[in-house]
Amino acid sequence: MGSFDTAYFLGALLAFVFGTAFAKACQAFVAYRLGDRLPRSEGRLSLNPGRQHEPLGLLLALFLAVGINTVAWGKPLNLNPFANRARRFGLTLIGLTGPLAYLFLGLLSGFLFNLLLNFGSSGITTLPIWTKTAYYFAYFNVLYAAFNLLPIPPLDGHLIFIKGLLPPQWDTKLVWLETYGAVILLVLVLLLPFFIRINLLYLFFDPIVSIFMRLIGLPTS
């Protein structure tokens, strides 16, 4: 086991706590602007992490931050699709807002990293802790953006590609996906890598992460 990396831990945990809170608040705001009052009535139009997280998700985020392979999540955002003026396209917009919010934070922290880089040495491993934390904060926000593009509930990709883009008659055909989505994620993240030594999710979103990192001007390693 490698030595504990404080910057990695802080970057991963802060990206989850504040990045997820920001993404959820932005999604609640978009839903509200589209006519859905439910997120506002439940207090989700807030950047307060306490309103956007639940205890088990935060505990699992701690495991992620120390390098344990698992899945963490924020508090699910309840929506009323019948109040949404844009109907199914509105769900796509709400879903897209989550990854875009993560990418926005990645862009800001990437800018901060490059700014701090001028005061440090070259090479990520030799940088001061605050500079490395800015890098990992950017990296994990980008990682969460890519991961949430998966079309599996409760991830944002389900709203974007399934609920938003597919015609309504598919809702009844894919109700099983909403029922077992969390189980499918656990199988993909935990069981398959253990038994077949291949992380299929990593093969899917690692190229996306690399593209996003290059777009915001950050190295991938």
Assign an overall shape: globular
What characterizes the major β-sheet?
A: none
**Category by helix and strand content:** mainly alpha
Low-confidence runs (pLDDT<50, min 5 residues)?
Answer: none
Radius of gyration: 18 Å
First-last Cα distance: 19 Å
Q: What fraction of residues sit in β-strands?
A: under 5%
Can you describe this structure?
Helix content is 67%, strand content 0%. The chain has 10 helices and no strands. By secondary structure, it is mostly helical. The longest helix has 31 residues, at 87-117. It is globular. It has helices at residues 6-33, 38-41, 49-52, 55-65, 87-117, 129-147, 156-163, 170-173, 175-196, 200-215. Helix 1 packs antiparallel against helix 4 (55-65) and helix 5 (87-117) runs antiparallel to helix 6 (129-147).
What's the SSE blueprint?
Layout: H1 6-33, H2 38-41, H3 49-52, H4 55-65, H5 87-117, H6 129-147, H7 156-163, H8 170-173, H9 175-196, H10 200-215
In short:
The chain has helices at 6-33, 38-41, 49-52, 55-65, 87-117, 129-147, 156-163, 170-173, 175-196, 200-215. The chain is mainly alpha-helical. The longest helix is centred in the middle third of the chain and has 31 residues, at 87-117.
Features:
mainly alpha
